[in-house]
Amino acid sequence: MSSHTGYHRAQVVERVDWTDELFSLRVSHTPLDFVAGQFTKLGLETADGELISRAYSLVNAPDTQNGHEFLITTVPQGKLSPSLQALVAGDSIWVGDSAHGDLTRAFVPEQTQDLWLLATGTGIGPFLSLLQGRQLAPRRIILVHGVRFARDLAYQALIHKLLNEYQGQLSYHPVVSREPVENTLQGRIPALIDSAALQDAAGVRMSPQHSFAMLCGNPDMIKDTIKSLQNQGLERYRQATGGNIIHERYW
Ligand SMILES: Cc1cc2nc3c(=O)[nH]c(=O)nc-3n(C[C@H](O)[C@H](O)[C@H](O)COP(=O)(O)OP(=O)(O)OC[C@H]3O[C@@H](n4cnc5c(N)ncnc54)[C@H](O)[C@@H]3O)c2cc1C
Ligand SMILES: NC(=O)c1ccc[n+]([C@@H]2O[C@H](COP(=O)([O-])OP(=O)(O)OC[C@H]3O[C@@H](n4cnc5c(N)ncnc54)[C@H](OP(=O)(O)O)[C@@H]3O)[C@@H](O)[C@H]2O)c1
Predict the structure, then answer these.
(1) Name one Pfam family in it (predicted).
(2) Ligand 1 close to Cβ of residue 65 (< 6 A)
(3) Containing domain of residue 41, as a range?
(4) Closest Cα to atom 14 of ligand 1
(5) Which of 14, 47, 66, 121 is deepest in the core (most CB within 10 A)?
């Protein structure tokens, strides 16, 4: 049996298809020391035994014994993601034995009163892990998910369960860019910050004194959203000086 340094072999337990190109994979439990919000690697062997692997964020909280879960979009010409989408229960997969990433509770300053979790596409994954880990202390948590179409709004049942559990501490704001949806913000996250439509929907103003933002997903969204947040007075987080914004680019 082959082995790959830095990986454990696992089996696919379940694949849930949200749309034609968006799916979740749950894989059997492997030893993986991670904190909520981090990513590890998933890999598949080619016919000649080469491992092709990429980074994927964990959606589950660290203390679950139910395997590890990932939310994945298929990049049509991609080397790995189309093969991940073809997996079915029982198939083998390689899971990294370490996890990394800064979208973790440790980076959220104690004085944070409002925590903005701003995601596009599969970038919502690490925020669902953080929320399920129930480690977030700020008075208000504002989860914002930007997608192209309403059908891309995955994990509605989990999000509604979390909204109940957080009892008013958490609010959820889907943002759909390519079709009008009743009672839903339309457009892109940075423009909605610039116009204050997002802050109005959340009922929270941003301020460098009490706001902290975590950004995840599309690199152009991250670039543009940082500018919009800076216009609100927020600054990128740096270890030496602190700040209000951390991010993780997916490509
Ligand atoms: C820290 C980190 C965490 C990540 N977590 C996730 C995750 O939870 N879920 C997830 O689906 N992906 C995630 N990604 C992206 C993932 O690692 C792969 O890059 C992606 O699945 C494409 O791999 P591929 O082999 O199919 O495409 P490749 O053959 O590697 O690349 C094709 C090209 O597609 C572009 N690309 C990569 N990802 C995307 C994307 N999502 N949308 C559009 N274009 C893209 C890149 O420009 C890349 O050059 C993460 C990436 C990083 C760096
Ligand atoms: N073959 C297909 O038809 C097809 C369809 C869907 C996805 N895909 C594949 O899946 C990948 C990921 O798709 P995805 O829908 O999850 O992610 P995505 O392309 O990152 O789009 C998610 C959301 O991010 C928004 N966005 C893009 N650039 C932004 C910016 N600069 N600032 C703020 N928001 C921005 C998009 O708005 P806009 O809508 O305004 O761009 C959309 O609302 C695609 O890149 C593609 O590879 C393919």
Answers:
(1) FAD_binding_6
(2) no
(3) 7-96
(4) 250
(5) 121
Residue 136 has a pLDDT of 73
Last residue of a domain, one of 70, 96, 122: 96
Sheet holding 51-57, edge to edge: 51-57, 39-45, 92-96, 7-17, 22-27, 68-73
Q: Which of 168, 100, 95, 162 is nearest to 133 (CA)?
A: 162
224 & 138 share domain? yes
pLDDT computed for residue 133 by the predictor: 84
The pLDDT of residue 34 is: 96
Best probe residue, ligand 1, of 25, 46, 54, 59 (max atoms within 8 Å of C-beta)? 54
The span from the CA of 124 to the CA of 71, in Å, is 8
pLDDT value at residue 134: 79
Type and span of the H or E element at 84: helix 81-85
Pocket test of ligand 1: the residue of 75, 246, 247, 248 to mutate, having most ligand atoms within 8 Å of its CB, is: 75
Whether 10 has a pLDDT exceeding 90, the answer reads: yes
Residue 62 lies in a domain: yes
Residue whose Cα lies nearest atom 16 of ligand 2: it is: 121
Residue 25 sits in a domain whose CATH number is: 2.40.30.10
Average pLDDT over residues 165-169: 93
Structural domain includes residue 2: no
Query: How far apart (Å, rounded) are the C-alpha atoms in residues 150 and 7?
Result: 36
